[in-house]
Amino acid sequence: MKIIVARSKQGKLEEVSIAEGELKTKVREVVEEALRLWDMETSDFIVMRDRYTMQVKLPLTKEQYEEYSKYDLRRLSGSEAEVRIPIYVISFNNEWRGEDYVDKEVYVVAPYVNEEQAEDIKELASNATAEMTGEED
């Protein structure tokens, strides 16, 4: 299986790689790397599992079906299906600012499905560490 790993620091992608292997193994490897980088005196260490939802056009090829059926695949209509792919966010450089929790540096790990999904994962990683500006109403 192909896996995308994106590392983001303060709103900028620092590193992106595509690897082959098992997702659980890769997540554990990235967690171990993040543990080496973690400063336990100043940050929390958090691993969060979430889902990334993407729509795909039907009909699927045999290869697409084999790949997508590993995840939560369901038909939306006669021409479209939805796939929910697991993603893991590993936060190891973060802080509290008042009541707000701010990630300064994270890894995001997910199965690689296609280039469009990979771009979304990169954007998610970048946005997770971007400084929020402006006041809330």
What can you tell me about this protein's structure?
The chain has 137 residues and is α+β, with helices and mostly antiparallel strands. The protein has one domain. Helices cover 26% and strands 46% of the residues. Strands 1, 2, 3, 4, 5 and 6 form a 6-stranded antiparallel beta sheet that branches. A hairpin with a 2-residue loop joins β1 and β2. The termini are far apart.
Q: Which terms would index this structure?
A:
137 residues, alpha+beta, six-stranded antiparallel beta sheet, 3 helices, 26% helix
β-strand number: 6
Q: Structural class of the helix and strand makeup? A: alpha+beta
Query: What overall form do the CA principal axes indicate?
Result: elongated
The total tally of domains equals: 1
> What is the straight-line distance between the termini?
44 Å
In helices, the fraction of residues equals 25-40%
Mean pLDDT: 94
In DSSP terms (H or I, runs of 4 or more residues), the helix count works out at 3
Largest sheet: 6 strands, antiparallel
What is the helix/strand order?
EEHEHEEEH
Stretches where pLDDT is under 50 for at least 5 consecutive residues are none
- The fraction of residues assigned to DSSP E strands is over 45%
Q: What Rg do the Cα atoms give?
A: 17 Å
Describe the structure concisely:
26% of the residues lie in helices and 46% in strands. It is of the alpha+beta class.
Helix and strand topology:
Layout: E1 2-9, E2 12-20, H1 23-37, E3 46-57, H2 62-68, E4 72-75, E5 80-97, E6 100-111, H3 115-128
Antiparallel strand pairs: 1-2, 1-6, 3-5, 4-5, 5-6
